Amino acid sequence: MPAGTSSGKPKQVADELRGLIISGDLDEGDLLGTEAELIERFDVSRPSLRESLRILEAEGLISVVRGAQGGVVVHRPNQRVTARAAALVLQSRSVSLADVFEASAVIEPAATRMVAASRGHQRAAEQLRDLVTEMKSTVDDPMTCTSVMVRFHSDIVQLAGNQTLILICEMINEVIVRAVADALTRSRDEPISSRRRTIRSFEQLVDLIAAGDAEGAQEHCAAHMARLRQTLLGDFASSMVDGAHHR
Q1: In the listed set 29, 58, 74, which residue is the last one of a domain according to the structure?
Q2: SS3 assignment for the chain
Q3: Residue 135 belongs to some domain of the structure
Q4: Residue 49 burial (CB count, 10 A)
Q5: β-bridge pairing 62-65 and 71-74
Q6: Domain check: are 52 and 153 in the same one?
Q7: How is the beta sheet containing 62-65 ordered, strand by strand?
Q8: Confidence band (pLDDT; 50, 70, 90) for 63?
Q9: Is residue 138 within 8 Å of residue 144, measured between CB atoms?
């Protein structure tokens, strides 16, 4: 521990600042203040303050900008921060990409059932149908079309409305999408007929949601995820999650 610090004070200051950021009192890009201002505000030594800031910087909650116009800048927690931490844990446990994808394949069908069974299932279907229309209009552009498909999966979980599931899926999608970015590049050579089959599958899923067929929607989504696993991961399925993709 740097000279001039005590074991408790840096953690105490870090805890207080973290609480302000997480509670929403501080927003993305807000300036906490300069080093001198924070030393005065918390009545700590410079080494203690810098130790506090190192804790928060390691958590991705702040960045320190040097220079006359610098200061401590706030970063709101998001799925990138969560994914980075999760990727490191998964990497340390030698978890494969297939393992991560299988988690998504469990959650998304359940979320689809929740959407189809909800009172707002017809409004949800309209929102998802708009994405299907966008897929059709971009089907000749593999990268753009694939991006819309990713949004479709994300929106299903968002529409389910369960905040814990939303966070978990944001983390999973962040890990999968970044880890298999090469698969999206390879999709440039994917036959357009493959994307059209995927779009038809989405259309069928939207119809089931619009009809309020919760069981049918869940079963269809599960089958779709099984096909997607092979298409998206391919030879990458046995690869390990790499934390370097999330730095």
Answers
A1: 74
A2: CCCCCCCCHHHHHHHHHHHHHHHCCCCCCCEEECHHHHHHHHCCCHHHHHHHHHHHHHCCCEEEECCCCCEEEECCCCHHHHHHHHHHHHHHCCCEHHHHHHHHHHHHHHHHHHHHHCCCHHHHHHHHHHHHHHHHHCCCCHHHHHHHHHHHHHHHHHHHCCHHHHHHHHHHHHHHHHHCHHHHHHHHHCCHHHHHHHHHHHHHHHHHHHCCCHHHHHHHHHHHHHHHHHHHHHHHCCCECCHHHHC
A3: yes
A4: 22
A5: antiparallel
A6: no
A7: 31-33, 71-74, 62-65
A8: very high
A9: yes
- State the average pLDDT over residues 60-82: 82
Tally the domains of the chain: 2
The last residue of one of the domains, among 74, 89, 112, is: 74
pLDDT tens digits, one per residue of 97-119: 888 889 999 999 999 999 999 99
Which domain range does residue 31 map to? 9-74
Range of weakest confidence among 141-145, 152-156, 197-201: 141-145
Residue that the structure tokens 């840096």 belong to: 10
